[in-house]
Design brief:
15% strand; elongated; 12 helices; alpha/beta; 9-stranded mixed sheet; Aminopeptidase; 411 residues; 48% helix
Length: 411
């Protein structure tokens, strides 16, 4: 009888997760700054309240342009400079390369500041101690992306395979356009300084073609239709809410629980940056972040490092604790990964907060139906969504219980 009751409860949680994911994925075009993103925030806020999180509000997030437009702008200016030639051409190409690096390595946009972008929104719930000694922040982004041709399996899967070869972490998906921009700048400067000849001409032509192709890819991505976003990232929202329900039920008296649906993740994790900046006085030694990303299919992983261009390394506290929890076997196989992309989790991690970021990946290292029109609720593994939420809750609870010290054994 007890086993049957437990099975029924699991089925009920999976049914509820499916309802959450289905509802979000049926909201069309919920990319950053859109009315649909605000509608998604309202839905998530209502679900938080249903789970007993009464203190729920929204917060504005500064505007950022779509990533495809930014990529296209930098590539176009670099190509123009290379083809124009002379001092002006060299200045344009160098400016494009410098601006791109500055934006993605130091989060200081230059050229992209001229592009339009609509303000986004975070939905934030809080429950627990009014005078907390410790905090747990659960997060998952609510916006979705455009289904660009660059993400079709015939292109993205071989690219992912090439990036993940070797012993070290992958370089990141922006490493190639960054290299093209740097190469274009070098070619433009060398041309201004008098370089010429057949070989130089061939290299210039190849560089220009690469930059123009990058521009076209960026424009197509930025103007493509939005994905339904069932896996990316409605599945993670469902995992976050599942985790929140579990933690709230046994929350210690000195702990406050924050539940954060971030906006604008797809355009530079703007929602998470805004939230962390607003609470920059929280001490890292008593604040834990648990982030969920694409938890709807494949194998469950703990992110160890990630990055679109720079590599962000997660502090060892929750990464090691996740290894210990996974070793118990109650949650199936959970393994580490060096992610070929970026998630909201790197934002608190880079500021020194103990951070756990969970993601599910197919065997090729890519999330299921990643940035594809096929990313619908029918492709989601509901048992994995619930398991990810339960695993995140178990790691957070272990951290609150004090089992945080890293050991010699690597994850």
């Amino acid at each position: 009888m007890e086993a049957a009751t437990k099975s029924d409860a699991t089925a009920d949680r999976e049914t509820r997760a499916r309802a959450w994911i289905g509802t979000l994925s049926e909201i069309p075009a919920r990319f950053a700054g859109s009315p649909a993103e605000r509608e998604a925030a309202d839905r998530v806020a209502a679900w938080m309240r249903e789970l007993g999180i009464s203190d729920v509000a929204t917060a504005a997030v500064p505007a950022r342009p779509r990533a495809g437009f930014s990529l296209a702008l930098h590539a176009a200016i670099a190509a123009l400079g290379l083809l124009w030639g002379g001092l002006l051409g060299a200045v344009l190409a160098v400016l494009a390369a410098w601006s791109f690096s500055r934006e993605h390595r130091r989060r200081q946009p230059l050229l992209s500041r001229w592009l339009p972008g609509a303000p986004s929104i975070n939905v934030i719930g809080r429950v627990g101690s009014p005078a907390p000694a410790r905090r747990v922040v659960l997060s998952a982004h609510i916006d979705t992306a455009q289904a660009g041709l660059a993400f079709r399996p015939g292109l993205s899967h071989p690219f992912a395979g090439l990036q993940q070869r070797g012993d070290g972490p992958p370089a990141g998906p922006l490493a190639l356009p960054n290299a093209l921009l740097v190469g274009g700048a070098l070619m433009a400067v060398s041309g201004w300084m008098g370089a010429h000849g057949l070989l130089w001409g061939v290299l210039k032509t190849v560089s220009a073609i690469g930059l123009l192709t990058t521009c076209a890819v960026g424009l197509q991505w930025a103007t493509a239709a939005a994905t339904p976003g069932a896996n990316d990232n409605a599945s993670a929202v469902a995992s976050m809410l599942t985790c929140a329900e579990s933690l709230r039920a046994g929350l210690p008296a000195d702990v406050e629980l924050w539940v954060l649906g971030t906006g604008a993740e797809e355009v530079g994790c703007n929602g998470m940056h805004s939230f962390v900046e607003a609470h920059r006085d929280w001490p890292p030694e008593s604040t834990y972040f648990v982030n969920f990303e694409c938890t709807g299919g494949g194998a469950l992983h703990v992110i160890r490092t990630e990055g679109m261009l720079n590599r962000a390394v997660y502090p060892p506290t929750l990464v090691e604790l996740a290894r210990r929890v996974a070793a118990g076997g109650a949650f199936g196989t959970v393994t580490p990964t060096d992610l070929l992309a970026g998630t909201d989790g790197h934002v608190p991690a880079e500021r020194g907060y103990p951070t756990l970021s969970l993601i599910s990946l197919e065997a090729n290292g890519v999330p299921r139906n990643y940035h594809l029109a096929e990313d619908t609720v029918d492709g989601i593994d509901m048992s994995l969504v619930v398991r990810a939420g339960d695993f995140g809750a178990a790691v957070a609870q272990a951290a609150l219980d004090g089992a945080t010290g890293p050991v010699e054994k690597e994850l």
